[in-house]
Amino acid sequence: MDGRAESAASHPQRQLLRLEQVAHHLLPELVEVERRAHQASSHYDDEPWQAENFTRPLPGKAELSLVALVSGRPVGFLIAARQWHGAHIHRLATDPVHWGTGIASQMLDRLLAGISGSVTLVCDPRNNPALSLYARAGFGVTGSTSAGKVALAGPGRAGAAQDHGRS
Hints:
The chain has a domain at 3-115: Gcn5-related N-acetyltransferase (GNAT) (Aminopeptidase, 3-Layer(aba) Sandwich). It has seven helices and seven strands, in the order αβαααβββαβαββα. By secondary structure, the chain is of the alpha+beta class. The N and C termini lie far apart (55 Å). The protein is globular.
């Protein structure tokens, strides 16, 4: 077996798809990824999302939101919607089996690359892995919510190359 074939066999194929491409036929599996992430984290919302959270219509949600697949199975998701400033991330979760593998970074990078303006989110201040992920991506703290969550904002990157040369 050559090195490429061996590598493909030992490393399952990763794929990022838009939510609109998979939402209906993978909805039960997305809910299960959410349940496992909720169960494994002590710094998550009180209740895990249910199917209606994934299907609730929001501006731009179908195009901006992403699902990470490994060997065709969902292992993470990023749910975002358009807002006046750019976009807001409503949820970013990865199956605990895949924590630390770069899947969350890959989804976040893909979203940021396609957004002009800023991207906002809220996060539990005790969720150090998530806060580190957001800091690496360029997010900074902008305040806090009445529920004690940290409000963060980061720069979208679409159009950055065109703007760089302008004076």
